[in-house]
Write a structure and sequence with these properties.
Helix content is about 50%, strand content about 15%. It is built from twelve helices and eight strands. It has an eight-stranded mixed β-sheet, sandwiched between helices. A hairpin with a 4-residue loop joins strand 1 (about 145-155) and strand 2 (about 160-165). Helix 1 crosses helix 2 and helix 1 crosses helix 3 (about 40-60).
């Protein structure tokens, strides 16, 4: 609703400038009294300031939907910053300034009218272009990945995320709710695993699902903050680590509710997948908030910093059908492979965990290139469980 209102105000502002410009060109003598009416009274003075502030905020809020977001945001801030000083000045000063400015510009009304037409037209064109052009998301032309995209500004981590959504082929022709798979490192894993899920429905009868890729938008460290977001505070953590609690809040309080609002999902079957450092975040989520996801897949996870967290008792859960899969490639990096084996041995005979555990060794699997096989085996196991079972740690 807020987005719709903001865009409506932007369209009205563009239409106003367009109409004002045409009026100034066609009937300059009639437009002068209108322009001189600005700040003619205290009521009009404060009304103008209020309108400028509201319109400025509308431009800033709707910038992410515009074809030129930086221009929209800059124009909005210009309106705000030039309006605030007017609140501190006597309205009579504003009236005198407006009178002098309008009279001084009388001879330039034609140029001002053209400028207003160009600015209003540019605003309307930008809005229409953004509504008809999938900026940066030409995935509709890739049927295996077609679905949706939106940018989500996170208050939990104070950064934006690009959210890619692959919808099942029959999503718009059925009325059922679908499981959801959330992919960390969506920049690289979404195009691989979202498309691969389609083949798993063909060959393995895996249920169709909505696949959500959580992407940063770049691999450069100034944009991609996976090292920070996917690591917990710990004595051995570096200054570039420790953001897992905030990222977990982003998942719980922002992304999951947004997905539930936008799409028909099966809230009882939501899955989190992470590879390497993303696998660490999956484990962190499993140990700190087990109820958040029905299934979790940690593919070749790291265990540092704060390795002791994953050997301590996890938080209690209220649900009884939770599943946690840890996959490890037999040719994974030796340090990670050894850590995974040590972790498995620790939990081999453990009881009372909040999730049913499955450890899978990917024979001849490597660290990153075997993520599709990790996904395949883990997803098949998660959906093959008929009823909650006692803890079972297996290595196959």
């Amino acid at each position: 609703m807020a987005e719709f209102l903001a865009l409506t105000l932007v369209v009205l502002s563009g239409s106003y400038l367009l109409a004002l410009g045409l009026w100034a060109l066609l009937q300059p003598q009639q437009v002068m009294p209108f322009l001189l009416g600005f700040a003619a009274s205290a009521r009009l003075h404060y009304l103008e300031i209020a309108i400028r502030l509201v319109v400025g905020m509308a431009f800033i809020h709707s910038a992410r939907y515009a074809f030129y977001p930086a221009a929209f945001s800059g124009f909005g801030w210009l309106l705000l910053l030039t309006s605030l000083p007017l609140l501190l000045l006597p309205w009579q000063w504003h009236r005198r300034f407006a009178s002098k400015a309008v009279n001084g510009c009388r001879r330039y009304l034609g140029m001002i009218g053209m400028a207003a037409i160009l600015l209003g037209g540019a605003i309307l064109w930008s809005v229409m272009k953004s509504l008809t052009t999938p900026i940066g998301t030409p995935l509709d032309y890739l049927p295996a990945l077609s679905g949706d995209y939106f940018k989500l500004e996170s208050t939990a981590v104070s950064r934006p995320f690009h959210i890619y959504v692959r919808l099942p082929a029959d999503y718009y022709t059925s009325a059922r709710n679908y499981p959801v798979v959330y992919l960390l490192d969506g920049d690289s894993l979404f195009p691989i695993l979202a498309a691969n899920h389609l083949f798993l429905t063909y060959d393995e009868s895996l249920p169709e699902a909505i696949i959500v890729g959580i992407a940063y938008g770049a691999f450069e460290s100034k944009v991609n903050k996976r090292s920070y977001d996917f690591s917990a505070p710990a004595p051995d953590a570096s200054a570039e680590q420790g953001g897992a609690p905030a990222f977990n809040r982003f998942l719980e309080q922002e992304l999951l509710p947004e997905i539930a609002q936008r799409y028909r999902i099966d809230r009882s079957r939501q899955i989190l997948f992470g590879q390497s450092r993303g696998g660490y975040l999956v484990l962190y989520s499993a140990f700190t908030e087990p109820d958040l996801f029905w299934g979790r897949i940690a593919s070749n996870p790291t265990f540092e910093p704060g390795e002791e967290l994953f050997f301590a008792p996890p938080a209690a859960a209220t649900k009884t059908d939770l599943g946690l899969v840890v996959t490890t490639g037999s040719r994974d990096w030796p340090k990670l492979r050894q850590a995974a084996v040590r972790w498995q041995q620790h939990w081999q005979d453990a009881a009372g965990t909040p999730w049913q555990l499955k450890v899978i060794t990917i024979e001849n699997g490597t660290h990153a290139a075997s993520s599709t096989e990790s996904y395949r085996q883990a997803m098949l196991w998660l959906f093959s469980r008929a009823e909650p079972k006692p803890l079972a740690v297996t290595d196959n």
